[in-house]
Design a protein that fits this description.
six-stranded mixed β-sheet, 12 helices, two-stranded antiparallel sheet
Length: 331
């Protein structure tokens, strides 16, 4: 067991420690960089090497999450392969953590393919069910994200950033419309059963993926769906993942009401959504996230007024499509 000479040369070029890799019982004869991971070609099949620069608590929590999901029947995740010393990861002298798992073959989902959307939505609901009762030792108290506080903070930031960017009449009018939408979202969330739903979720001790998108979803053979990239997991109500997923897919499909409805129905068949929960999702979707992203981008650099107007017009079109869709759905 070990690293062949040709593979070792590649390891050195990628600044990967041979001594650390040899803590696993793997005969490696080739490797290829793939985005943020490295494909290891071994005698026991392809493996995935991921190097993390996080605290040991964060890395161990990631390991515990994958084990927890697998123990609850959600096995479509890249579980860590233990070293010959029985450890789930290896630490380097420069505080990096090496994690190796089986390589998952497949392709990203096609958001214009309704079958892919259906399969991925079901997988998200199953992930949320499997997440219940997850605890980690370093958590003194399970504290969930507070949407009401976050939306209010974002609305205040939007006001401040907008004042820094421009005083053009067009921008002012657009700004007023977007602020009205942000305030409506905050009001809907306040009037919903959010607080009660959040308290119930805290009792279930579940978690959200945090970055459930095409970069962390792999479509395998025969309708299998795999989920990776749990690095951004967070304590939050499941509706956060669901609402973000709807935003992602709906934007790719011109905010088709049929697509959004199919996502809700597909999720509900696996993990029931109560009317109060749908109200919370509606409040989330109504927040003008497109405008928020444009403002953040403009705040980073000095854009000419024509470019700013072009960006705002694109944003307006997206928000208008979203508004039509939500009204169609009675949201």
């Amino acid at each position: 067991m070990g690293v062949r000479r040709r593979a070792w040369d590649s390891l050195g070029m990628l600044n990967i420690s041979k001594n650390v890799i040899e803590q696993w019982d793997l005969e490696i004869f080739g490797l290829q960089p793939k985005d943020k991971v490295v494909l290891l070609e071994t005698r026991s099949g392809p493996k995935c090497l991921k190097v993390l620069q996080k605290s040991i608590q964060d890395v161990h929590s990631l390991f515990l999450i994958l084990e927890h999901l697998a123990s609850r029947g959600f096995k479509s995740v890249p579980r860590f392969i233990r070293t010959r010393y029985g450890k789930p990861y290896a630490k380097t002298d420069d505080n990096k953590f090496y994690c190796i798992s089986d390589w998952i073959d497949g392709s990203p989902p096609d958001w214009e393919n309704q079958i892919d959307i259906f399969l991925v939505t079901e997988k998200l609901a199953k992930l949320h069910l499997a997440s219940h009762d997850f605890t980690v030792s370093q958590e003194e108290r399970i504290t969930f994200v507070n949407w009401q506080q976050r939306f209010q903070w974002m609305t205040q930031k939007m006001v401040g950033i907008n004042l820094e960017i421009s005083q053009e009449n067009y921008v002012k009018k657009f700004f007023r419309d977007m602020i009205e939408r942000a305030l409506l979202s905050c009001r809907l969330l306040k009037d919903s059963g959010y607080r009660v739903i959040k308290e119930k979720a805290e009792q279930k001790k579940g978690f959200c993926h945090g970055a459930f998108n095409e970069h962390h979803i792999i479509m395998g053979n025969r309708g299998k769906v795999f989920v990776t990239g749990f690095d951004e997991w967070c304590r939050d109500i499941r509706l956060t993942d669901l609402a973000k997923f709807i935003l992602l897919v709906a934007n790719k499909n011109q905010w088709s009401p049929q697509i959004v409805q199919s996502i809700i129905e597909s999720y509900d068949r696996v993990y029931h959504l109560y009317p109060a929960e749908w109200e919370i999702v509606c409040a989330y979707l109504r927040f003008p996230f497109n405008y928020w992203e444009v403002l953040k981008e403009l705040a980073k650099r000095e854009a000419e007024i024509n470019e700013a107007i072009r960006m705002f017009e694109m944003c307006w079109k997206k928000e208008a499509l979203k508004e039509q869709c939500l009204m169609h759905l009675g949201c």
